[in-house]
Amino acid sequence: MLSDGEAAELLSFLNLETRADLKGQASEYVLGLTGNRDGCRYLQSKPDCLQALVTLTSDPSIAIVKDCFHALINLSADETLHQPLVTETVLLAKLLPKLLDPEYVFADRICTILSNLSRHERTCRDVFRALQEQDIGLDRLVEVFCNQGFNKKASLHYLGPLLSNLTQLPEARLFILDKDRCVIQRLLPYTQYEESSTRRGGVVGTLRNCCFDHAHHEWLLSDAVDIIPYLLLPLAGPEELSEEENEGLPVDLQYLPEDKKREEDPDIRKMLLETLILLTATRLGRQIMKDKNVYYIMREFDRWEKDPYVTSACEKLVQVLIGDEPEEGMENLMEVDIPKDVQEKLIELDAKEQEQMEKDEQEQMEKDEQEQMEKDKQEQLEKDKQESEKNPKQSPEGLER
Fold first, then answer.
1. CA-closest candidate to residue 263, choices 202, 345, 200
2. For 316-368, what is each residue's pLDDT tens digit?
3. Most exposed residue of 170, 213, 231, 265, measured as fewest CB within 10 angstroms of its CB?
4. 27: nearest Cα among 69, 60, 84
5. Closest to 285 in 3D by CA, of 339, 346, 231, 204
6. For residues 247 and 106, what is the distance between their CA atoms, to the nearest angstrom?
7. pLDDT tens-digit profile of 100-121?
8. Closest by Cα among 219, 220, 245, 240 to 231
9. Residue 398 in 3-state DSSP?
10. Distance between CA 321 and CA 289 in Å, rounded?
């Protein structure tokens, strides 16, 4: 890495007044440092350099601004850089207002940086606090997220993961779950947003986090929100159900067309299932799901699903749906006190299950690789055969065949 003298010289070029060519070379060099872990960890101890990158996001040169944002994205992807970026630079104060500029070209990069910084609770609180201090708040963030034409130069899809990360905080969940704001109702349609899995996944993650607050389950399951169809529809396929099975389903899930496709991202499918599992925590939630014939959608889904982690989540939900009701006093599964020895046993079973799934996944990967190699081999043989037929070997001149 750089000596102290070299670092000081590099820093002297990273300011708005420096000649454009020198400044460009310096920002490009720093970008290169952020491309690997050692470089990021080195910059962790250089807060002046971090601040210089933030300052240069206002440079008149688009190329330099692009390099600086790219470097900040790389740095924010490293958890050890979160605190220095938040506490030793003015990154949040400088970038948050630009997020609300409908003409700002680099708004998507700001979304990515904020999403990275908010992954862990400590810096998530810093981001949430900065939103309040900048008079932006979650209400404005949700408004921008739901207005897809807000910025014609940026998709703002990464506002989805940002919202999901923020809802790990109780105060953010309270805002989303405020009955008078109708926020969650505005987010629900995005569970089927086809243009971006990032936006879809962000919304599903937000819904899952909100469902940890079981006090709101009755409202979420009521007609005022009607969350079940939005969680089930991405998991439903084109399979034909009996008339009796269809009639018990929510209207949006009845008699689905033959070309109905399921959610393609296994991580999102798993989050949808986890959200449904959370909603079975109360007796009311379990009863509503049974009344809405959720089991039949899960039955067909389980037959279709190939990912072992998603299958495991599906099986847990099915067990709750077809199992007996817990005994009196244990109706709310989120409030049950589990003895320490039982907790340890459950952790052990989860670890074994995880180990088995990883083993199965590795075996499947090896099988797929073997099948691909065999397929490639067969294709090459077929290709060689076609070439041979197209250009048959000629006998040497003067010799008889």
1. 200
2. 999 999 987 765 655 555 554 545 565 455 456 555 655 665 566 566 667 77
3. 170
4. 69
5. 231
6. 49
7. 999 999 999 999 999 999 999 9
8. 220
9. coil
10. 8
**Cβ atoms 212, 172 nearer than 8 A:** no
What six digits make up the tokens of 372? Answer: 């691909």
Q: Is the pLDDT of residue 172 over 70?
A: yes
Q: 3-state DSSP call for residue 59?
A: coil
3-state secondary structure (DSSP) of residue 338: coil
How many whole angstroms from its chain centre is CA 20?
38
Return the pLDDT at 375: 81
- Residue reference for tokens 């920002």: 27
Q: How far apart are CA 162 and CA 127, in angstroms?
A: 10
Tabulate helix, strand, coil % of the chain (nearest 5).
Answer: 70, 0, 30
pTM, 2 dp: 0.82
Start-end of H helices in 183-282: 183-187, 197-210, 217-221, 227-232, 243-247, 266-278
Residue 400 confidence (pLDDT) above 50: no
Q: What pLDDT was estimated at residue 401?
A: 36
